[in-house]
Design brief:
Layout lengths: L1 E2 H8 L21 E3 L5 E8 L6 E3 L4 E8 L6 E3 L7 E5 L6 E3 L21 E3 L21 E3 L5 H5 L7 E3 L11 E3 L4 E4 L10 E3 L11 H7 L6 E3 L4 H4 L12 E5 H10 L1 H26 L1
Parallel strand pairs: 1-3, 2-4, 3-5, 4-6, 5-7, 6-8, 8-9, 9-10, 10-12, 11-13, 12-14
Antiparallel strand pairs: 14-16, 15-16
Length: 292
């Protein structure tokens, strides 16, 4: 294995130019795409001074700590399949896509420094996030895809999995959300609050039969409702890894399925809509009072 920071500083020197490869002759500030995937990197990595970097990829490695600092043009980070327990992001106001599935992250503190209007895709599936509800995501009003479920059987049996719980209610204002995965979590209700923009919703129960998301699955699982998507073999995606994928089809539901459930439970949807109207009226009233 190779020390990640030493590799980066040698290949992309802080004060000089790159000597070899596709970025030969460039300084850090000149690089717009950086892919150091499958370099057998391990340990901590601090990515900084790449002031025009737009995309950074380092998946299928053994990074344990990542700091991304002062990369104002950065839009995408893909660090799926590492061993990250610590993630810090500072002064990266244009981040739109974050992929950190299959790591060991335990908290969402890094979200506090993100631009709430820029983030569109967030994949934190199969981490070790502590028990919490979904309110941390409600600020990201332009989010289109959110994956926080669990799909690695080996890690789950070892007690490493995301521990989200509560209701889907806190996602009600994410009007652009199209894809949501909460598989094998303890989120147990709130279908009536799902945004109408949802066109794919995954909530399977395979490796954690005790997971409370089963309650949602049972509500949606009717004859002729739902669809099956065969999970890809991780050996094709990560040939050097020993990952063990859930040995079942991944149950997902289309917008048609969600809409059918809402029609069958229109009374719950109406209550949710009234709550939203009352909330808006209360907020407007508070604004008037503060203005006076």
């Amino acid at each position: 294995m190779v020390n990640a920071q030493e590799y980066l500083d040698k290949k992309f020197p802080r004060d000089g130019k790159v000597k070899h490869g596709r970025h030969e002759g460039k300084k850090r500030k000149d690089i717009t795409e950086l892919d150091i995937t499958n370099k057998q990197l391990q340990g901590s990595l601090k990515l900084e001074e790449f002031t025009n970097l737009e995309s950074f990829c380092c998946w299928n490695s053994e990074l344990t700590k990542l700091e991304v600092v002062n990369c104002p043009q950065l839009k995408k980070i893909n660090c799926n399949t590492n061993q990250l327990t610590n993630l810090t992001i500072i002064n990266c106001p244009n981040l739109a896509e974050l992929y950190f599935s299959n790591n060991y992250l335990t908290n969402l503190n890094f979200l506090n420094n993100l631009n709430t209007e820029k983030l569109e895709c967030l994949d934190l599936s199969s981490n070790n996030l502590r028990g919490q509800e979904l309110s941390a995501f409600s600020r990201f009003v332009n989010l289109k895809s959110l994956s926080i479920g669990n799909w690695l059987s080996r890690e789950i049996t070892q007690g490493v999995y995301n521990r989200f719980d509560g209701s889907l209610k806190t996602l009600r204002n994410l009007g652009k959300l199209e894809s949501l995965d909460i598989s094998d979590t303890d989120i147990n209700g709130g279908l009536e609050y799902l945004p109408d923009s949802i066109n794919f919703f995954r909530c399977s129960v395979f490796t954690r039969p005790e997971s409370e998301v089963k309650a949602i699955c049972e509500e949606l699982r009717e004859p002729g409702v739902g669809l099956k998507r065969k999970s890809l073999s991780l050996s094709l995606l990560f040939p050097k890894s020993n990952l063990s994928l859930v040995e079942s089809d991944a149950t997902g539901y289309s917008s048609k399925s969600i809409n059918k459930w809402k029609r069958n439970n229109y009374h719950l949807v109406e209550i949710a809509e009234r709550e939203e109207i009352e909330q808006l009226e209360t907020s407007a009233h508070e604004v008037v009072i503060n203005y006076d």
